[in-house]
TrEMBL record:
GO biological process, one term: acylglycerol catabolic process
SUPFAM superfamilies listed in its UniProt record: alpha/beta-Hydrolases
Keywords from the UniProt entry: Hydrolase
GO molecular function, a single term: monoacylglycerol lipase activity
Source organism: Sandaracinobacteroides saxicola
Protein name: Alpha/beta fold hydrolase
GO cellular component: membrane
Pfam families, A to Z: Abhydrolase_1 (PF00561)
Residue ranges constituting the AB hydrolase-1 domain according to the UniProt record: 23-242
Lineage: Bacteria, Pseudomonadati, Pseudomonadota, Alphaproteobacteria, Sphingomonadales
InterPro entries: AB_hydrolase_1, AB_hydrolase_fold, AB_hydrolase_sf
PANTHER family referenced in this protein's UniProt entry, alphabetically: MONOACYLGLYCEROL LIPASE, MONOACYLGLYCEROL LIPASE ABHD6
């Protein structure tokens, strides 16, 4: 547990062997606790990984006051400082993808490479299916495993729902205040005006069967970010990062280990 600028947060750290390159800082999706992304660390054993539960999510106490994305970016920077890192690669999924963009724009000199997974530029997003979005904004998907399993395909989409039961068992219900504050934090937020000025090499990963964040949002990000590469995962639902890890992780590893800077394709 760390207390940073008035917010107490639970931090997770997976160390890695020496010489493993930059650490990877991970921003999770809305309402999602650390345990939900833990399998990703198992797939990247040579990579040091850092992440934290947002206030009121997982093991972090409910926030004492509202927060904005720039505030949580400062929390992430303080966590990196505490672990002795001046630079990091950054990955964010869904809501956390917006946070990853905020961190990259706020702390550009501290980022090596950026990975955006199933995410958008904020309020300018093209929404997914109404049935999925209505269930996504209901925190019951985290508090009732049976509800999540019954609605998993409607919620997330995708050709493969492998690991759905394990995913449900790893969930820890967010506090009502934490979930609400996390939704409110992004109200009115968009990265769109700033993305053309970002100089960070960026990998955008989107699933073509995502019920929550359609692929067109990834194409929009690719259009705006000067040095970006877009990969579309065939059959990938909103949780393809975990359900299709055998397909996605090699793409991530290849990108993070690349030496040549990206150039925007024509």
């Amino acid at each position: 547990m760390m207390t940073i600028e008035g917010h107490t947060v639970r931090v997770a750290h997976w160390p890695a062997p020496a010489g493993g390159g930059l650490p990877l800082f991970f921003f999770n999706g809305i309402g999602a606790n650390i345990e939900l992304m833990a399998p990703l660390a198992d797939h990247l054993p040579d990579r040091e990984i850092l992440t934290f539960d947002m206030p009121g999510i997982g093991g972090s106490p409910a926030p004492a006051f509202p927060y904005r994305p720039w505030m949580m970016a400062r929390v992430a920077a303080a966590i990196l400082d505490e672990h002795g890192h001046k630079q990091t690669d950054v990955m964010g999924v869904s809501w956390g993808g917006a946070m990853a963009q905020q961190f990259a724009l706020q702390y550009g000199s501290r980022i090596g490479r950026l990975i955006l997974v199933a995410t958008t530029a904020g309020m300018l997003m093209i929404p997914g299916k109404v049935a999925s979005l209505s269930k996504m904004f209901d925190p019951k998907r985290y508090s009732d495993p049976d509800y999540m399993l019954r609605n998993f395909e409607t919620l997330y989409g995708g050709a493969s729902n492998a690991g759905a039961a394990a995913h449900a068992l790893r969930t820890k219900p967010p506090t009502r205040m934490g979930y609400m504050m996390q939704m409110v934090a992004m109200l009115g937020w968009t990265s769109a005006p700033c993305l053309p000025f970002m100089r960070t090499d960026t990998l955008i990963l989107m699933g073509d069967a995502d019920n929550i964040v359609p692929v067109i949002n990834g194409r929009f990000l690719k259009l705006l970010i000067p040095h970006a590469r877009l990969e579309i995962i065939e059959g990938g639902g909103h949780l393809f990062l975990l359900s299709m890890a055998e397909t996605v992780v090699p793409i991530i590893e290849e990108f993070l280990s690349g030496d040549e800077p990206l150039r925007q394709a024509a």
